[in-house]
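Hey, sorry to bother you again with one of my protein questions. I've been staring at a protein lately and its backbone has me curious. I owe you a coffee for this, so here goes:
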Amino acid sequence: MRVRFAPSPTGPLHIGGARTALFNYLYAKQGGGVFVLRFEDTDKERSESVFEESIVNGLKWLGLNWDEDYYQSKRSDIYQKYLDKLVLQGLTYEQDGGIYFKLPTEPRAIIVDDIIRGQVEFNSKDFDDVVLIKKDGTPTFHFANVVDDIDMNITHVIRGEDHLSNTPKHILLYEALGASVPQFAHIPLILNPDRTKMSKRTGDVSLDGYIRAGYLPEAIINFLAQLGWSLPAGGANGGEFFTMAELIEKFSLERVQKAGAVFDLKHLNHLNQHYLMQKGLDEYTKLAEPFIAHLSGDEPLVQSALKLIQERAQTLSEIPSLIEYFFKSPEYDATLLVFKKSSPEQTAKGLDTGLKVLSAIDDSAWNQIKLQSILDETLSVEGLNPGDLFWPIRVALSGQMGSPSPVELLEALGKTESISRIKIAIKKLASSS
């Protein structure tokens, strides 16, 4: 078994291309076959090395390591050899500087035997003759694609369904060149939530964009695998989270759907959050470092902050906004200090009382257990509700409605910084009334 992923380096690796590469990789590895990377780089004007790097780096980042690689731009002699075969058979003609392949003069049915879609019938009368060589002497996609698949002994062509309409012409070329027709599998398109085709004009669809946003390779792999592939029952963790080894074991083209696969960003975020939560704190910190380099170099505080928000972040790029208040006093409106079931008066009492009892705690006893005990006791003694005390302390420390618990924040920020922020909140509330 030999499969290929054949990107054109005229743009960065598209999320759809990444899925095509994944499906080819899984199929090859499951069958003990060969995964070929082939750059279709004959478009001299649009092909750029930066895009080639994007494709190579993206595949490596995903863990999709290839066994062989080829560049169409280095295979001119091979294309000429196959062109000569067609010329000798009288199956070509020149026109407007290009060389064309003659389709059958008598209309005939062409059957595409597709693993995913079954038998799809076309008729040769619906197609024009195929351009083989362009005016500048370079082979067209159709010709180079077929020649390469023949010359590289590709047994299975797994690609997007947008290529299905090209396949009848390719089959005629295979036949004319006396080659066996490979097995085809045309995977469904990736759709936007409104079910329009996902494209560069309708969203951020490059893999680079998702890497920069702080998604993990294992999340992207699982997400792409589930775009169009129906999961078998009994997978790990309810059939939602798979290792690469499990995907290789379970993947099958027969379970790939025909209908378009909707790109669900919420599901991707859910998967990514799961894998972020599985990381140990040291690894999580290392992953976060490129995203928080602009924040304080106080390593103990960084680790404390990351530990508290690890279950909250869906992507690594969200981390700065979740921990920024650990490194500088937060900005917020005084009205946020007042819980919906409290009042400015009760909030002021809660903050004043909280400041008093917290100031009395010795630095050596400044830990979550002691802090929780003191504040719980304060509620009882002062006749306060949790919203009168815990809520405004949380806001004073973080400036946010949703954050780690007040005692977690108190411990992480330390006594001096915590007391300072509570004093600021008291002044802010007083000046607003």
